[in-house]
Write a structure and sequence with these properties.
Its cofactor is FAD. This is Ferredoxin-NADP reductase. InterPro entries: Cbr1-like_FAD-bd_dom, FAD-bd_FR_type, FNR_nucleotide-bd, MRET, Riboflavin_synthase-like_b-brl. With about 240 residues, the chain is α/β, with parallel strands linked by helices. It contains five helices and eleven strands, in the order βββββαββαβαβαβαβ. The strands form two sheets. The protein has a six-stranded antiparallel β-sheet with strand order 4-3-6-1-2-5, covered by helices on one side. A five-stranded parallel β-sheet has the order 9-8-7-10-11, sandwiched between helices. The longest helix has 13 residues. The protein is globular and about 50 Å long. The chain starts with 14 loop residues before the first strand and ends in a 6-residue tail after the last strand. Bound molecules: flavin-adenine dinucleotide.
């Protein structure tokens, strides 16, 4: 079967993002709503690079997935605060509405959903962020029928966008507590098998370990390796 061809937009130049809203929906996280000058419409799944510049000219840049759909006039990022993290601590602790910093995007055409073909979304922890953009886009275009979703976190309280994902019918797998009649456990093929449909592309996002495990499960279920798109949230310097 031929895979859908996704034509992703070329990233725009470095530009200014003005912080329009700051929320802390879960402990140790921050959700930023950004007004991006000259924003290029993204495809759900793509990410931006954030560049912070200190007064002495030192810069640090990191990648962050977009949680908002293309139809949202603002760009939404969801950042987990790492205690020893250079950029995530600044975004979580320091940034306030009205602040500005540089961004560049959208980036990552290999992990973009076209919005028109069936997809199985599998996310772990903050790896759900780009999948939320897909769920929101499907809702905005009335194509929720195209998506099947499975997400994993330690506890429900630590699952980003838990209400939205559950409303979208996501299978929720919790590793540290039971969820309904489902005991605490890791994601298994039994969770994913009922979500399979003909012609799906799978989008897997999370830590390196989660992404590897979920990708292996999907290939074990019969997905062609080329139809499993993987995004890893490891350390990123570019
Ligand atoms: C394509 C892409 C999309 C991403 N999207 C998101 C997103 O939507 N939300 C989000 O919170 N993060 C996301 N990340 C991760 C993000 O880019 C940073 O790596 C993360 O915020 C840590 O940056 P920092 O400067 O705070 O930590 P650093 O100063 O870079 O690192 C501090 C310490 O944490 C370790 N570390 C760095 N990154 C991670 C990580 N992701 N997980 C575990 N340990 C880590 C480092 O090895 C180091 O020991 C994404 C990464 C990529 C590549």
């Amino acid at each position: 079967m031929t895979e859908p061809v996704v034509t992703a937009p070329a990233p725009g130049p470095w530009t200014t993002a003005t912080v329009s809203g700051v929320r802390r929906p879960l402990p140790r996280t921050v959700q930023l709503r950004l007004d991006v000058a000259g924003r290029v419409d993204h495809l759900p799944g793509q990410h931006y690079v954030v560049r912070l510049t200190a007064e002495d000219g030192y810069t640090a840049q990191r990648s962050y997935s977009v949680a908002s759909p293309p139809s949202d006039p603002l760009l939404e990022l969801f950042v987990e605060r790492l205690d020893d993290g250079e950029v995530s601590t600044h975004l979580a602790d320091v940034v306030e509405p009205g602040d500005t910093f540089e961004v560049r995007g959208p980036i990552g055409g290999g992990f973009a959903w076209d919005g028109e073909t069936p997809a199985l979304l599998v996310g772990g922890g903050t790896g759900v962020v780009p999948l939320v953009a897909m769920v929101r886009h499907a809702r905005a275009t009335g194509r929720e029928d195209l998506l099947r979703v499975a997400v994993s976190a330690r506890t429900l309280a630590e699952l980003p966008y838990a209400d939205e994902l559950q409303a979208a019918g996501a299978v929720v797998v919790l590793t540290r507590e039971a969820h309904g009649i489902r005991p605490a456990s890791r994601l298994t093929a039994v969770d994913l098998f009922p979500l399979w449909e003909e012609g799906q592309t799978a989008f897997v996002c999370g830590s390196a370990g989660f992404a590897r495990t979920a990708g292996d499960l999907l290939v074990g279920l019969g997905f062609a390796p080329g139809s499993v798109k993987v995004e890893q949230f490891g350390p990123s310097g570019t």
